[in-house]
Every structure is written in structure tokens, then in C-alpha cells.
Amino acid sequence: MLCLSIASFTGHVHLAGSFAWIGTPSALVAFSVATVLEIAAYYIPYLDNMLDSIAVPTATVAGILITASMVTDMDPFLRWTLAVIAGGGAAMTTQLATTKLRLASTATTGGIGNHLLSTGEVIMASLLSALAIVWPLFTIFLVIALLTVCWLLIYFVGKRVWRLFKGQTAMVNSRG
């Protein structure tokens, strides 16, 4: 939302009429403060996991609003359908992937690895937000590729953690 607000405020993006408020100075300040607070909170172990529980629905709504605000000259029914499916779906899938990565990081490193993950998330979110304004089609393919890599990483880390857990359980049961 911050990147869209900056792009609208500077005239690089034209929003649908009812979403012009996103490009106002007060919205820019609000999105800036919210972004700084969110980034800071993601560097506090376990608080980051708690925030992830509310981030999935929030990111989904933000994805829907961003998509709806950018789609102009379209029937309202089609605009909102596209916004829910494409914008909300992409945002939800991305947020679920990062939530699962952070959970895997917390489980395997006790939260120590989450700082690295948070830094990567901030860099990727900033880069992808800027790219989405400049090269939207390229960004779609890049996001699909990144999500595929994230889901594969989640699968393999989860599989390894499961094996470790099963091994620990078997040792405890054998000691009886």
C-alpha cells in the first residue's frame, strides 16, 4: 500500500476515482508509519509469528484493494471479481508462504533465523512493489517463480523437521 501511495502521490500511477485517497499526503504518512512499525515488529522473535496470524487476512484485503484501485475502465462486477481472485489470491498465497517460512525458521532456529528471513522479506517486498509499477507482467512471472521456490523450501524443511520430530519421539518411547 505504501508503494502504491508513493506512486500515486508522485503521479506515476492513476487510481480509480473512489481510490484517489490512497495518493493523499495523509494516506502516505499513515502507510509509512504502518510500514515502519510492521518491519520493526518482524524483528522481534515470536511477535513476528503472532503478527503473521493477522497478516494473512490483512494482506488479502490489501491485495484486493490494490488491484481494484488500479483497474479502471472495467465493469464494476468484473473489476471486483478480478481484484478478489488475482489481487487477493496472490496476496494471500504470498503471505501464507512467508508465514510458513517464518514458522519453519522459528521451529528450526528458535527464532534466531527470523531476522534474516525478515530482512529478505523487506527487500523482496520493496523490490517487487517497485517492479509491479514499472513492469507488471514481468513481476507476475517473477512472483510465481518465487512462490514456487518458497513452497518447495517449505516442503523440504517441513519434511526434515517432521523426520527430526519423529526421531525424537521414537527415542523417548524406546526409553519408556
Shape: elongated
Uncertain runs with pLDDT below 50, 5 residues or more? none
- Share of residues in helices: over 70%
Tell me the Rg in angstroms: 19 Å
- Arithmetic mean pLDDT: 85
Counted up, domains total 1
Instruction: Give me the secondary-structure category.
Output: mainly alpha
Number-wise, the strands total 0
Order of helical and strand elements = HHHHHH
Strand composition percent: under 5%
Number of helices: 6
| Straight-line distance between termini | 55 Å
Biggest sheet, open or closed, and with what strands and sense? none
Question: What would you say about this model in short?
Answer:
With 176 residues, this protein is mostly helical. It has helices spanning 2-9, 25-41, 47-70, 76-109, 114-134, 136-175.
Overview of the molecule:
This protein is mainly α and 176 residues long. The protein has one domain (2-175). The chain is 82% helix and 0% strand. The chain has helices spanning 2-9, 25-41, 47-70, 76-109, 114-134, 136-175. The longest helix has 40 residues, at 136-175. It starts with a helix and ends with a helix. The model has no long low-confidence stretch (mean pLDDT 85).
Descriptive key words:
mainly alpha; 0% strand; 82% helix; 176 residues
SSE inventory with pairings:
Elements: H1 2-9, H2 25-41, H3 47-70, H4 76-109, H5 114-134, H6 136-175
Helix pairs in contact: 1-2, 3-4, 4-5, 4-6, 5-6
